[in-house]
Amino acid sequence: MARSWATLGVDLHLEPAGSGGLRRGLTDALRDAVRTGRLAPGTRLPSSRSLAADLGIARNTVAETYAGLVAEGWLTARQGSGTQVAMRVPSASSASSAQRGRAGAPPSGPGLAAPRRREPGRPAHSLVPGIPDLAAFPRAEWLKAARRALATAPFHALGYGDPRGYLELRTALAGYLARARGVHADPETVVITAGFSHGLGILGRVLRGRGVRTVAVESYGLDAYRRLLQDAGLATPALPYDELGTNPMELGDAGAVLLTPAHQFPMGVPLHPDRRAAVVDWARRTGGLVLEDDYDGEFRYDRQPVGALQGLDPDRVVYFGTASKSLAPGLRLGWMVLPPSLAEEVASAKGRIDTVGVMEQLTLAEFITSGAYDRHVRSARLRYRRRRDALTAAVTERAPEVRVTGIAAGLHAVLRLPPGTEQPVVQAAVWQGLALHGLSFYRHPQSGAEPQDALVVGYGTPPDSAWAGTLEALCRVLP
Amino acid sequence: MARSWATLGVDLHLEPAGSGGLRRGLTDALRDAVRTGRLAPGTRLPSSRSLAADLGIARNTVAETYAGLVAEGWLTARQGSGTQVAMRVPSASSASSAQRGRAGAPPSGPGLAAPRRREPGRPAHSLVPGIPDLAAFPRAEWLKAARRALATAPFHALGYGDPRGYLELRTALAGYLARARGVHADPETVVITAGFSHGLGILGRVLRGRGVRTVAVESYGLDAYRRLLQDAGLATPALPYDELGTNPMELGDAGAVLLTPAHQFPMGVPLHPDRRAAVVDWARRTGGLVLEDDYDGEFRYDRQPVGALQGLDPDRVVYFGTASKSLAPGLRLGWMVLPPSLAEEVASAKGRIDTVGVMEQLTLAEFITSGAYDRHVRSARLRYRRRRDALTAAVTERAPEVRVTGIAAGLHAVLRLPPGTEQPVVQAAVWQGLALHGLSFYRHPQSGAEPQDALVVGYGTPPDSAWAGTLEALCRVLP
Fold first, then answer.
1. Which residues in chain A touch residue B154, judged by CB atoms under 8 angstroms apart?
2. Does domain A3-103 have CATH number 1.10.10.10?
3. A36, B67, B211, B385: least buried by Cβ within 10 Å?
4. pLDDT digits (tens, 9 = 90+) for A414-456
5. Are A394 and A409 in contact (CB under 8 A)?
6. SS3 of B368, please?
7. What is the residue extent of each domain of chain A?
8. With contact defined as beta carbons under 8 Å apart, do B271 and B309 qualify?
9. CATH topology of domain A137-374
10. Mutate to test the interface with B, among A158, A168, A228 (most CBs of B within 10 A)
11. A125-134+376-477 has which CATH code?
């Protein structure tokens, strides 16, 4: 089995010992990363001790690898400044014998999940937002629900299913969403998806098929989602962003608007009540549609959650939810609650049969109806809240110039930095083996909003065991 | 929860008692079915006793429903001929108060799985091919594998995954396919999908993106697959079919060809060795691609399975496999083994993250490596073989004019009928509450092949408990 790591903010892929030994694998991976520019000239490499610890291999293996690459001219080693990528690396031809089929692959694109083209690796530390603490996934409870669900499911549930998804799950979700998020849901208008991206892609195609040409998006958000809409043939202009959050007044001739009303991603503020009302008014007036991405609506700490916008007008709002933040992205489970006029069309666009596995659906239905989902969300909320408080306290104490914002909800905070410091801080973090995203990573390229220096800190991401170390690593790089 | 049934070969959807009672629900459903033509004038309805048994409701409820609809003029009841749909039904306006939102939905389209827009129902009897015996799904073994897999999976496996699929599963499949099907597979070139349709759709888009305009298909096959390719912008002309099976000599300017080489679906014969060689020659000569749909390659009864065509030229054949026949369609798990030159592109076309749930992938990987998959396939093969033998014996004895063909492998047989009898037999089956497909259902509309009267009998479909009754129902309608 292959191993990969991301200590330097790039993924290097290590082959098993069988195909030439760990040293050979590490040598090839590092050489390719330098050759393709994924490790830029001058980049400081982690010490052999810390890289060896990250990879769980002998320190000598790393030291020998470094020495070999220094000898080949890829790296330089100087007393006091450690090992760095050489400023002038050998020509590509001299590396050709070491070239691997995948070395030329482009580096991972940006995205909520920092998705990788390779098996996901474990960074030494990561505060990239969008992933819950995967080590806290309730494995035993999930298996218990799977066992109960499979014990009682009729055999025909295992056949080709309704493209809207398994009825038991749609029913369980309709009840849960009404209770927890104020969503007007009927099992008939719920469509189960393999996560938010799957649903957004389907809806984009349906809207384009109905003649929509433009879906407005927020000034801050995920490039991956803009691209999904663009792939469906839709333009994705940016809405203005100001101190009240996203301003949906300038929707122009957009046929729909994609928003994160409960908790703007990544800025972390709820949509102002006036603007909630305004966007629904716009939709009613123009026949437009609001796409509500409620990615982490369950996690609000200081007062009652902001209810779903969908509750204001179920005929003009498509509600999107997901198990990716409340449970785990690997489940690949999301849901849409659709206006009745769209439900059939979206189900047909999903396919002629269900494309989402029924086992997960059966299990989640049981997980919800048994109360395990509520229990898990409650306990996760408590844990994340403690982390948020620890983050706020540590930053306030150790980096008084940094302001912690957007902390009322969710699994991430926005750390406002002194002007001009975002890029150096992110760079310093990379050198420390801490994966971290700056706010500029999430800025719409055509946004008119004033660029601001900030970090988007996903404090939900590390496992509990790594949390203290990760927070310490963060504090070390803050100005 | 809604209930549905398909005793008459049409799905009637029953609402829960809460929304007006079972009698009301059944009345509405039957009235809508008559009004929309799904139940044709003259159709004989099942006796109130047998319909009540199918639905698990009181016989009186059905009897009262029938009586009410007779009174309204939708049905007629005559001594000796039971209850029938009236030859002239009330005008639509008189039914408007009973109209339901979904009553106007088109009837289910054809397809391997007879997919339904509603929750799948249980026909009284079904011999529709393409579904294994779902009652024999190894639930306990599957849960055991899930428990073991989840106990040992690293937590990062639950994050956003590699779009090619989980590495452990790709590795397990590469080993299994090499051993069981003679496939040349490397985990790097395996892509996990949510079943064959998912993979075919992706590949169609990739081929179209590469400039392919035509993918030739077989004279007999599934309309759903042709449509998937057409949706990707590809033409799907039919290849000739003769006594040696599909004839791939006339590929013209096709850029690819979709075949079922191990077991033609639905005709049930393997592709002739000369033609296997010829199609690979064609691919090499023209740079074309062969898409090998190996949907039930595991189930061969009388001698060694026919190896995968992919083994002849892994650079020119895309191999497609699925767990839908060997385990259950509801798992939504399939796999492609791709020529190295296509693997990256297909993975990218699948998405930037994995869209298939990791729990199923972890579980199937464990199921294969622990040997449970082989054990299950062996035991299923034995069971299906017994059914095949029983089918052959019963038809030979009770319908000597009918010839049983295509029985060396798979989960279905082709019953050749006397000329002109296919439609009447299928019609008679519907009246008996037996879901059954004629061969014409699978015939390419532009096929030049001489139409033949035959039935495609999916003897794998019924649960064991219903098998004897289903076989008896079949024999009753044979000429």
1. 122
2. yes
3. B211
4. 999 999 999 999 999 988 899 999 999 999 999 988 889 999 9
5. no
6. helix
7. 3-103, 125-134+376-477, 137-374
8. yes
9. Aspartate Aminotransferase; domain 2 (3.40.640)
10. A158
11. 3.90.1150.10
